Amino acid sequence: MLYENRPCRLDFVIFEVSEICFSHLSNVCFLLPWEQWSEVQQMINGTPVYMYQDCSVLSEGDTDHWLRTNWIYRGDAASRIYVELKFTVRDCKSFKGEVVTCKETFNLYYMESEQDVGIQFRRPMFIKLNTVAADRSFTNRDIESGAMQLNTEVCPIGKLSRRGFYLAFQNSGACVAMVSVRVYYKTCPEAVRGLARFPETLAGLEGLTEVPGVCVEYAAEETGSPPKMHCSTDGEWLVPMGRCLCAVGFEEVDGSCVGEYADSGCRPWERFQGAGDQSICKHKVRVGE
Q1: Which of 172, 167, 170 is nearest to 15 (CA)?
Q2: Global pTM?
Q3: Looking at the Swiss-Prot or TrEMBL record, what is one Pfam family this protein matches (predicted)?
Q4: For the domain with range 187-286, which CATH number is right: 3.40.50.2300, 1.10.10.10, 2.60.40.1770, 3.30.110.30?
Q5: I need a surface site. Which of 58, 77, 135, 259 has the fewest CB within 10 A?
Q6: How far are the Cα atoms of 129, 157, 159, 264 from residue 116, in angstroms, in the given order?
Q7: Higher local confidence (pLDDT), 187 or 56
Q8: What are the pLDDT digits (tens) for 134-166?
């Protein structure tokens, strides 16, 4: 079944190169085409690529054509997500005098919902997100040589509040092909800095999100200066504050605290707590060995 109706999740590619989409969550997601959008294969830089295409510049009838995704499950993920589009648009001048109407732009819409509405297409409920224009358009010569170049556009969608959403593409007179649609959100990755560990953190809608750190093993907070970092809206760690210090008898090595001991009579936790007679440690052995 080519156009199966099933929800998608973040982060995933709705479709790219192959006829189906895929993700690290093993979801298979399909686009639902309406009104003239069709799946075709085209050569791009010598490689056969599947895409959804609509070219109605020679049509004298209705040129308001839509393409909608399946329901994209957001759940408790970030309230700001990003849509990355890869597409081609044909140069209107390459049609010469045979064109009835021609544009070099298309529109991106979205609609939030608490559940999947199936194949129902509630067009008036979709909110316009952006008019997408191509930086590079192609001509007949590019088609013949297979040297068409892809355009890439990233559009953020902020302040989402419902369990999921749909995307829709409206073409009103362009010769356009959608090659890839990727939907994702940004996080600051798990990190260790200043002997403190910081968890993966969702990027906020605006400003910086303060995140407390947890000292690595055999380290403790510097007095009056607990470790903190700030997660930016772009998913980058900024403004580190405070740090942790290795306990007495330990030294910092590659972001961790390493101690040296001799035998079982000189135990790491005794050293960490300041107990035990260090004079009994005669052979150097790293903690954990």
Answers
A1: 167
A2: 0.73
A3: Ephrin_lbd
A4: 2.60.40.1770
A5: 135
A6: 21, 19, 20, 61
A7: 187
A8: 998 888 777 777 677 789 999 999 888 998 899
